[in-house]
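for the recovery benchmark. tokens below, seq after
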């Protein structure tokens, strides 16, 4: 890692100028630009009018519909992908080969095969460039505090956990053509909605060893599921349930972990603060211990800004970011295993889905009743 990169702003290109770029990525980038950590040098989108409006509104000097030309002309240090998951693989590989780090919005990509292709385009070692996934819930101060206490064994062994993403999406939401389709959205609520809570659960609990899943299409006219559940066993022996839904009028995101000495609960919707965490001690835990557990320190909400700040620091110091490589793959592997278990009615163990397995290349695995209707697809494009 050169001293030049460690002392100058990371030249950053934003690819995809839709809602998530405007609402989450741009504000985070602007905050770090104000402190000299990054410089937003380009915006790229397939829609000429959209990219020009985005660039003009944000004061970005370069707007283009051509990612390859942007990479060649500007040589950005960091490429932020805010595009649909179906194009993440191609765009990430292109950026990595051009020598740029990649920060990719979730879902990371439609399959483990795609993820492995991205990882294979990285340079060996941890100095980069590499691709990282937007899993911002790992980076709030609450998660940092609880993760540290769990790693130190302060709560004793984790025993039972519950992970819940129960949201509500109406028919109008799915009237957008790319939603609810394997090829363009990547999956249903297990992939597109619950992925953040699932990722945080895995980050806190450690490696998973087995999943038994169920999925259903109960309300919406979509290819994917609209609800899923899973039973999970972790390498530690702990067990958990995971529920993902877009059918739930009373919306909530929740994680609960029961340990030997305490129960840890997080309840929020789309992002948390320290006050959204609750620690309940088991009988007999000293009061001074509980007081220390409940001291979360300065409040840093879970956000794109919190993760971007950590990512930039990792790039500068040559550390591999937590959501890159194996640290990002574990969550996609878990979701893939959930789908395989649900569609084959069998338990799936960590590490068993690889090249040659139909679920390695497509999350529906070609399962009858779940794979896209190719006849209907061909007629639609005739």
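predicted aa per position
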């Amino acid at each position: 890692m050169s001293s030049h990169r460690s002392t100058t702003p990371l030249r950053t290109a934003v690819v995809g100028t839709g809602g998530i770029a405007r609402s989450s990525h741009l504000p985070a980038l602007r905050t770090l630009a104000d402190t000299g950590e990054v410089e937003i040098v380009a915006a790229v989108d397939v829609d000429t009018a959209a990219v020009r409006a985005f660039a003009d509104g944000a004061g970005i000097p370069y707007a283009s519909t051509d990612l390859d030309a942007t990479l060649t002309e500007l040589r950005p240090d960091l490429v932020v992908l805010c595009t649909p998951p179906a194009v993440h693989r191609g765009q990430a590989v292109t950026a990595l080969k051009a020598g740029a780090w990649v920060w990719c919005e979730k879902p990371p990509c439609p399959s483990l095969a795609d993820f492995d292709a991205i990882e294979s385009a990285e340079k060996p070692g941890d100095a980069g460039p590499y691709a990282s996934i937007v899993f911002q819930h790992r980076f709030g101060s609450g998660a940092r505090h609880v993760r540290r206490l769990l790693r130190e064994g302060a709560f004793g062994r984790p025993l039972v956990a519950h992970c819940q993403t129960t949201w509500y999406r109406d028919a109008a939401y799915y009237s957008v053509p790319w939603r609810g389709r394997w090829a363009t959205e990547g999956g249903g609520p297990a992939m597109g909605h619950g992925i953040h809570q699932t990722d945080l659960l895995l980050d806190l609990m450690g490696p998973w060893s087995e999943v038994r899943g169920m999925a259903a299409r109960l309300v919406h006219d979509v290819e994917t599921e609209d609800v899923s559940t899973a039973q999970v066993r972790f390498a530690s022996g702990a067990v958990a349930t995971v529920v993902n839904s877009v059918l739930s009028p009373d919306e909530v995101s929740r994680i609960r972990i029961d340990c030997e000495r305490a129960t840890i609960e997080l309840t929020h919707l789309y992002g948390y603060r320290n006050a959204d965490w609750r620690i309940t001690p088991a009988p007999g835990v000293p009061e001074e211990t509980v007081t220390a557990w409940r001291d979360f320190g300065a409040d840093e909400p879970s956000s794109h800004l919190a993760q971007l700040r950590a990512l930039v620091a990792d790039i500068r110091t040559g550390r591999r970011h937590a959501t890159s490589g194996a640290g990002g793959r574990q969550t996609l592997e878990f979701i893939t295993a959930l789908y395989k278990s649900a569609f084959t009615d069998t338990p799936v163990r960590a590490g068993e889905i690889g090249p040659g397995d139909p679920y390695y290349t497509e999350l529906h695995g070609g399962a009858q009743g779940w794979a896209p209707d190719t006849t209907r697809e061909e007629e639609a494009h005739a």
